[in-house]
Amino acid sequence: MPNFASYIFCFRRSRRPVLITALFLLACDMLTPVKSAVVSPRDSGSASVQEQPVPVKTKYCSDRGKGLVQVDFTESYGEVCEAPGETMLARVAVCMARGMEAVLVPDLNGVVCAAASRGGFFLESTVAGKPRYEAPKYVKAAQICADAQTSDRRVLPRGFVKDLVRETKDKVDPKGIRLIGAIFCEGLDLSGLDIPYTLALDRSTFRCGKSTECRRSPVEVRNFRTKGDFSLDTVLSYERILITRAEISGSLWMEFAYAQKLVISDTTVKGSLRLKGSLYREELNIENVAISGDVDLSASFFSNVSLLKNQIDGALDLTQSQARCSFDIRKNEIADIVGVEFGFGSVKSPSSFQKKDDAVYGFKDHETEPIGAAGDENAFERYANSGEVISKNEMRHTPCKAYRAIVPGVLVFINNHVKYSMCLRDFRWLSDYAGRPRDSIIYLNEDVVDGAAWLDLDKTLEASTGAGVADEGKPILSIFNFRTGTLVLDFGVATRNVVVKVNGLHFQRVYSAKDRCETALSPRSSARQSLTTPTAGGKPLFPPDLHLPDAEDVTAWVTKNEFIGTQPFQEFVAVFEKAGDLNGARDLKIKGETAAVKANLCMSWGVHCDGVGRQVGDATQNAETNILRRIEGRFVSIVQYALWWLADHGYRPERVIWFVALALLLFWLFIQTVLGIVGYSVDGETDPAAPRRIKAISFIFLFDKLVPAYRIREEHSKPLIFYVLPTSEYEKTYPFRRFLREWSVTEASEKQRRQIELSFDWLRFLGLIFAIFLVAAISRLVR
Length: 783
Known about the structure:
Elements: H1 4-13, H2 18-31, E1 70-74, E2 78-82, H3 88-97, E3 101-104, E4 111-114, H4 119-123, E5 126-127, E6 130-131, H5 141-146, E7 155-156, H6 160-168, E8 177-180, E9 183-184, E10 188-189, E11 194-195, E12 199-200, E13 205-206, H7 212-216, E14 219-222, E15 225-226, E16 230-231, E17 236-244, E18 247-248, E19 252-253, E20 258-269, E21 273-274, E22 279-291, E23 295-296, E24 301-308, E25 311-317, E26 322-330, E27 333-340, E28 343-344, E29 346-347, E30 361-362, H8 379-383, H9 392-396, E31 410-414, E32 417-425, E33 440-445, E34 448-456, E35 475-489, E36 499-512, H10 518-521, H11 551-559, H12 567-578, H13 582-604, H14 623-647, H15 655-675, E37 677-682, E38 695-696, H16 699-706, E39 720-724, E40 734-738, E41 741-747, H17 750-782
Parallel strand pairs: 3-8, 7-9, 8-12, 9-13, 10-14, 11-15, 12-16, 13-17, 14-17, 15-18, 16-19, 17-20, 18-20, 19-21, 20-22, 21-23, 22-24, 22-25, 23-25, 24-26, 25-27, 26-28, 26-31, 27-32, 31-33, 32-34, 33-35, 34-35, 35-36
Antiparallel strand pairs: 1-2, 2-4, 3-4, 5-6, 29-30, 37-38, 37-39, 39-41, 40-41
Helix pairs in contact: 1-2, 3-6, 11-13, 12-13, 13-14, 14-17, 15-16, 15-17
């Protein structure tokens, strides 16, 4: 190949004409010494030919990484660039100045720059089918931090972020500081930091060594201010994370994370709080926090969770979350609440322990597909038995420590104000490892829901196979002074093993529905369920198919109430009347009164009816008082029972007419067949010599005897002579025409007269009873 450098050299030396110059250049080219040679494979063994390395052309990054050496590039995570610099601080600053993420890796000089939100994909990528880097849960962080001479460049000092802010000052791109995959062996201190951009420390690992400062405040975010987001997604913290007196203009992210304990207090978040798919080994505590957006705790696991005195302008999402010990939600202002398939884990039966307090509690896997979790894997399975994080056996065999005097297996929802709607469906009650229910309680006390409250908290329990609930497990639904505009209730709790204690349940409208309520309230969109996805029946999931419940369903639900009183019935009746269903309201009144009468009857007589009943009286009172109370209670119960039997507790007074007619018919048959009285005449009405006017015993005659005050015929109140059929031919007879034929009758004997008068006394007494109950029924009806 011609050597053009030699041509130029020879051309400058030549003074000849052009033709001669050309010949001279060719001769120079032939005389120029060889600078390099290309070695063929067969000449590679020749000692006289030496191979010279061909330099590889360096490839540089483009766009924001311009000027940096490119490490890798794929469509999944984009362009990855090597960060130059003498120190970790300088290398990270290079990425920040270009608006890229600083991704910490154990090779490549410790830091590479990746496009925003793509660094995590680079860490999760594979090379030749194997993971490029280990996930944080598999990193031997304890060993790395314990090694005093560690060469792992991912280890950063406690104040690294503060130093980075001071070093970069105005050089940070508006995208903010995005530090991915760091290891903080002495915790993290962000106290007093005030930055105008986002701070992301995703996929970081936090541990504490022997440092006193770290042990006192492992991960401390105190008096921290940012005008962007604060992100701790997929972090792994073996220590407590404290965020207090902070101001976050964006959102606070901590999704798919693990933390020993997370405390957020006295803080303002103008965006949302995203804690989805995380595991908190001890406690999640959010107290006195103002959040302008949503609080997403879906698919998360906690030992204890407490939400106290918070202002949440969005939705609180508890869907598929699970507490090993307790939920404590009190004194919050919340826009919406949605909780589906959430609740408690499992408890190992205390029968094998010396004390009941020695019972151990653990998480249990969801029966359905977890939502929003990476790789369809829930947080407990993701972190249990992975590396050095936690032991699955440990988290399933651990006693519960009582926080704020809350016993395990209790959901406390007290003194909360929900501005719009509440959706609680398919609650997971505490159970043993065989799935049988154990003692757990839901308290809905002193709460106000301005919109609709959807309560369907019993579907996970099997229907009752007998009366009452098994002694070893008693799920309890306790509702006291709970107010809502619209109550949407699945009344199936009446057929399941749930103890219901209700008093002070107030609502303006009530509906029965089994449709899913979370579709309109959930702050996220589920890939498995959308607003437009039809159900098997062809109907949309939302809006739901609402309708008034049947009186039988309401009665069964409220009759299950173990709190003595008829308050829930009164609320249901008022709602039925407002809805225009007067017949349903009346049926409900009757069924409610019937349930109360049966309970009083059982209690007054000291018997048990369907699990209800107790002896009337107080052991602290004397025997005479107890006897009087018992007699009084039994008398009242009999009267109440009679009113129910005669007039449906007064709501159907027309039923008394049928009983009156039946009584008259029975007395007419008794007088005619048993006593033999067939007619009567008025004593002294006519001249003794004239024929007697004998009249038949009629229903009008008996009605005047039944109700003496209301006289249809005046003669029925005068002295009467009664007649019977003669028993011998020697008796004096009188003609009596009846049934289109003429009979011969004789006067009744003295004994028969006494019998008929006694019968009339009983008839008048029965009329008094009917009158009393009729007046009571009418008075109740017109109230």
